[in-house]
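Fold it.
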Amino acid sequence: MSRRSYDWRYSVISHLLSPRDNPSHYRLAAGGLALTGLLMLPFAGYLRRQLGMIAPRVALVCSGSFLAGIVALICACFVVPQHTHDVLRIRRLHELLGRSAAGFLALAMIGGCWCAWKGRCKSRGASRLFWIWSALTLLPLAGIFCSEALLILTRLEPTRMQPVHAALRHSIFWHLGFWEWTGAVAVFAFLCAAVFLLPAQASVKS
């Protein structure tokens, strides 16, 4: 439905929310993403209750970060991606909200991994949960970190990094859009693993 050809491997999610890039249906995309955030809200309390039996303080940080990430995600849906004028005296407020949402959700996932690590000796479900959550959390974070680090290096040292830039600029791993969608799938799978594995963990703990 987008006016321009949209390839999730190379295009960021914000292009779907932009009136400039998706003038006919950007409201549909923004509404869908906001609804997704609203439907994710109950998981903040769910994670706090389930993980709180293992590490109450970390579980509180995990649920709080998850809640903050969802709120930032919903707010990003109502701030149009643009760079022409400031919004609340911030030039790139949409990007700030989007990055904040990603950062808070990543922190929540790391906290969940820590809780699963602490409970792994008491339950087989917690052990499986730890390895699943770790893979879903650390692999995308490592990919984003390496991609951003290479991008910064190519800007700081354009001459030395020219061969690297030439080799990777057409690769999907070079583009933020790929990592955004990968992170979205990782969050979805993270929550699915919580639903299927945490109840068994809770019953063993009780």
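Confidence is low (pLDDT under 50) at residues 200-206.
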